[in-house]
Amino acid sequence: MISNNLKHIRDRIATACQIAGRGAQDVRLLAVSKTFGPQAVRAAHAQGQRAFGENYVQEALAKMAALADLDGLQWHCIGPLQSNKTRAVAEHFQWCHSVDRFKIAERLSAQRPAHLPPLNVCIQVNMDGGDTKSGVPPARALDLARQVAALPGLRLRGLMSIPDMTPDVADMRGVHERAKALFDALRAAGLTLDTLSMGMSADLEAAIAAGSTMVRVGTAIFGGRG
Ligand SMILES: *Cc1c(COP(=O)(O)O)cnc(C)c1O
User: Fold this and answer.
1) Does residue 216's CB lie within 6 angstroms of at least one atom of ligand 1?
2) Which pLDDT band holds residue 133 (cuts at 50, 70, 90)?
């Protein structure tokens, strides 16, 4: 089941890349395992999946402990982050996609253990002003990106966008394109960025067409979250 779903998602990504005239290696798959147990991650790992996304820090820590025997797992925090959770993220994750305030970034940087490489981070932007609530407004993204890029414990990789879902996912293309334009503008301003984290189970084709480099897929791999 998970193996078939993964295969299907990889095909969807490859097809979307082909249609967009992009290389299949340009887009990475983040498997969003929130609410699913260690066995689900184990099944995906057996199919070669290594990068996993989690929203809830406590849940993720329990899963990491249960999966300590697996090689090469890469954990991405993609949920809204409160100050009291930054230490666990800094100590146990490789990536955080949901940085939207300098205060949180500063804590992550200060709490990143010295023996680990810098924590990879994306700045979450609220492109549509929608009720995702988290995310910095686009007009403030450049300032925040410059501040974050200067922190020694972090490596700024790019932007993360979670547009509000619309009934027709093709309608989301405009929001995806604005996120890509902002990403390009930050690069043009001199920031070294390689990651545009956008696209989920329903809208990954539209996100890839617009320039996503990492899609975060949960439901289409692991099933409904009930
Ligand atoms: C849950 C979640 C996903 C996965 O969404 P699906 O629709 O299940 O693919 C992706 N990104 C974020 C930030 C999420 O919280």
Assistant:
1) yes
2) confident
